[in-house]
Amino acid sequence: MVWLGIIILVPFIAAIIVPFLHKVFNQKIHIGWFVLFIPFLIFIYLLTYIPSISAGKTFTYLVQWIPTYDINFELYMDGLSLVFGLLITGIGSLVIFYSIFYLSKEREALHNFYVYLMMFMGAMLGLVFSDNILVIYVFWELTSISSFLLIAYWYQRQRSRYGAQKSMLITIFGGLSMLAGFIMLSIITDTYSMREIASQMDLIHGHELFFPLMILILIGAFTKSAQFPFSIWLPDAMEAPTPISAYLHSATMVKAGIYLVARFTPVFGGTAEWFWLVSGIGILTLLYGSINAVRQTDLKALLAYSTISQLGLIMSLLGIGSAILYFGYNDESSVYAIASLAAVFHLVNHSTFKGSLFMVVGIIDHETGTRDIRKLGGLLSFMPISFTLAVIGSFAMAGLPPFNGFLSKEMFFTAVVNASQLEIFNMETIGVLFPVIAWIASVFTFVYSMILVFKTFGGKYKPKMLEKPAHEAPLGMLIPPAILASLVVIFFFFPNVLANYLLKPALASLLPEEVTAVDIEMKISAWHGWNTELFMTIGVVVIGSILYVLLKKWIGLYSVYPQSVTLNRLYDSGLAKMESGAKTITDQYMTGSLRAYMIYIFSLLIFVWGGALLLPGAFSIDVSNDAPVSFYEVGIMGSMLAAALTVLFAKSRLTAIIAVGALGYLVAIFFVLFRAPDLALTQLVVETVTTALFLLCFYHLPKFKKEKEKKGIPFKPLNLIISLGVGTVVTLFAISANSSRMFEPVSSYFEDSYELAGARNIVNAILVDFRGLDTMLEIFVLTIVGLGVYTLIKLRLARREKDEGAE
Fold first, then answer.
1. Which residues pair with 408 in a beta bridge?
2. Do the Cβ atoms of 121 and 39 come closer than 8 Å?
3. Which residues pair with 60 in a beta bridge?
4. pLDDT 10s digits, 122-163
């Protein structure tokens, strides 16, 4: 399974190579042709695992990363991760092919585009195939960073920058919340492995941290999958190029939150809290997205709210399906397994028809110069192929036959009807709202699907409102959405081929072993007789058609809602107040005075540390085990005090520097007396270097100004109070810490540095071996700072030469 690790690494390697390819080939050939082979070959490779996965096998691959802390790069492939892997690489291949014809190699910075895209693809593959939750978090945040770069690809546009910032702030906030949940989960289970965590479900359910850690993890999932109320970032992310929207916001990034919920269902499922939060937020998001989609006049904004709605549908199905973990698998509970199967099925279906629709909208924008529905109309005569693809995608989204969306929408109706009949979690009273809300949301889904097709391609052609005459797109832009539209139809007629080889293995990943041990027999079919679900669909079509025909008569109701209380307005005002508040506070203490800064820092130290010492049992003194103080130590202490006072009263910088150096050398003598020659040697070297540097720097400074009218040093009581306060607090803390040791001193571990690290110098061993990663990061930061300073100097010199040349 080493190839499983390689396929995750390959996109990152490609991200490094792409800039060089751009430099060599950009004027000759579109570099998208080189990038296209990467996801395509990975997709073909993943296809070879379908027979094994469908037979119930799983695959693992382990690379030790930080084995001491059980943090390893462990990969795990099962049915669920394979489905996501195929979506990431399959649709990724189509998106790259589409982008070759959508993005001009003459006008666009293609190297940036494909670098960001490869970073995102690698991060998504790493996320879905990782078993270690901390590694999942690393890839999770990497998807947020790379998506930020992709959304801000056209950074010269203010709306692109705004959308990128918004998506990053919300998803990064969710990621940090998720990390806190992961840490709490690892504390309970003593493992970072997802599979081992799932095996300790009973322990987790009975722990007092169960609810808070579940909330924290769900916040991460809800922010990434644009669930209410975190859904506001997705419409603004539509400022990205259409290939990005088709990839990130229909098939991959927003599905990461769905993946997380699905993966944690065996851990938290079967509880009322998980059931209500996941299904409740999902059904609310479904309604919110569908209602807001109808009012949009921008085609991509319509699809954005549509995506929010569809993600809510999938999320609600995962919540409803988790009820099977309460019952265990039997004939009565099998109806809830249908919900989980429908969730995975609709996830695949949504990726096909929504990816196709995004590409069609990109074609409309590319060939007419606008996405504004008010300016479009009558495009059927000019773009018949695009119209056909739009009909297939939109009708699938509306849940009409003969398209795959009809099958999963019927299964969704079945799930909510069954949920309303549950006799647990108080569903016998509130559960009736599930089918009602689902039906209302489906009506609005039907309406905006019809708007997308008939408002754009029907009606009167308006050439004067278009930036360029409408015409059909080139073949290269039509092939990717045509492939996805073909899958929409194929999955309708052959759903059980997909179910047997991909959906059921993925379903097994959502259920515990005692449930999956039973063979789950579920057959997907288009006809189930004249049942409740079919009548709900007929009602959706009838009422939806009436609402679409009368759209102009009731669309004005949206203006009744005050725009001042929208989630977007709340976000914008909250961000503005945070910025203004931060500026106000910063202006109070950023006075430009070093003395003022030191006062703030030391005052906080005195109040916080000093206040901590006042807590019950915080302070103690025990000198019974302390060594006696010798005459030499008293003499050195007196010398140190004299050196410190010399610094204060020195009338020249040279005297002050020499006194500071003397103070450092006296500290080195203390280390010698305490039998720490390594520390003494290090102290002597550091003190010598710093003293020399001080002398070099101060040599170039102006001399002290003699102020005859002032005699002596001006006395500042505040300085005295703060100095005494810091000294007292630090001393008391040191005494208390030495008197009440709760653990064995860590120094005993470092004494074995020669055996552990082969180092005779303990200080060097600590810096290079024991603190190796920390030291490396410090050096890395200094390197970045040095490069920044060097760059600024070079830029200034270049500008000076340019100015001199102009003169």
1. none
2. yes
3. 76
4. 999 999 999 999 999 999 999 999 999 999 998 888 889 999
Report the distance separating Cα 666 and Cα 672, nearest Å: 10
400 sits in the region (left: phi over 0; alpha: psi -120 to 50; else beta) called: beta
The neighbouring-strand residues paired with 193 are 132
What is the C-alpha to C-alpha distance for residues 289 and 309, in angstroms, rounded to an integer?
4
CA distance 764 to 754: 11
Element (H, E) at 62: strand 59-66
**DSSP assignment of 134-179:** HHHHHHHHHHHHHHHHHHTTTTTSHHHHHHHHHHHHHHHHHHHHHH
Q: Quote the distance between the C-alpha of residue 443 and its chain's center.
A: 33
Per-residue pLDDT at 707:
46
Q: Which two tokens stand for residue 111?
A: 């190297």
Q: Phi, psi at residue 501, to the nearest 5°?
A: -95, -25
Alpha-carbon distance 208 to 716, whole Å?
A: 53
Amino acid at 452: L
CA gap 287, 358 in Å, rounded: 21
Return the higher-pLDDT residue of 70 and 464.
Answer: 464
| Euclidean distance between CA atoms 490 and 141, whole angstroms | 36
| Cα(446)–Cα(537) distance, integer angstroms | 10
Mean pLDDT of the chain: 86
Rounded CA-CA distance 457/465 in Å is: 15
Report whether 452 contacts 299 (CB < 8 A): yes
CA distances from 176 to 132, 181, 261, 282, 524 (A): 17, 9, 16, 22, 39
**Amino acid 525: pLDDT:** 82
Taking the C-alpha atoms of residue 219 and residue 181, their distance in angstroms, rounded to an integer, is: 10
Bond from prior residue into 229 cis (ω within 30 degrees of 0) = yes
Distance CA 6, CA 589 (A): 51
Q: Is the pLDDT of residue 706 over 70?
A: no
List the structure tokens of 738.
């030495």
The pLDDT assigned to 754 comes to: 76
Cα separation, 246 vs 393, in Å, equals 13
Secondary structure (DSSP) of 380-441: GGT-HHHHHHHHHHHHHHHT-TTSHHHHHHHHHHHHHHHHTT--STTHHHHTTHHHHHHHHH
Written as one string, the DSSP assignment of 489-542 is: HHHHHSHHHHIIIIIHHHHHHHS-HHHHTS-------S---S-HHHHHHHHHHH
Sequence-distant (6+) residues with CB within 8 A of 55 are none
Poorest-confidence range of 697-706, 723-732, 787-796? 697-706
Helix, strand counts (H, E) of the chain: 38, 2
Total length of the chain? 807
| Per-residue CA distances from 547 to 118, 448, 452, 555 (Å) | 43, 10, 14, 10
Encode pLDDT of 1-24 as tens digits: 688 888 999 999 999 999 888 888
Question: What are the φ and ψ backbone dihedral angles of 251, each rounded to 5 degrees?
Answer: -125, -25
Crossing angle of helices 210-224 and 158-189, in 10° steps, is: 150
DSSP 3-state assignment of 73?
Answer: strand
The type of residue at 316 is S
| Residue recorded with tokens 């552990």 | 756
- List pLDDT tens digits, range 527-540: 777 888 899 999 99
Give every CB contact of residue 200 below 8 A, 6+ residues apart in sequence. Answer: 188, 189, 191
Q: 26-30, 75-79, 408-412: which has the minimum mean pLDDT?
A: 26-30
CA 522 to chain centre: 35
Cβ(424)–Cβ(326) below 8 Å: yes
Residue 709 is predicted with a pLDDT of 47
pTM (2 d.p.): 0.81
CB 682 within 8 A of CB 763: yes
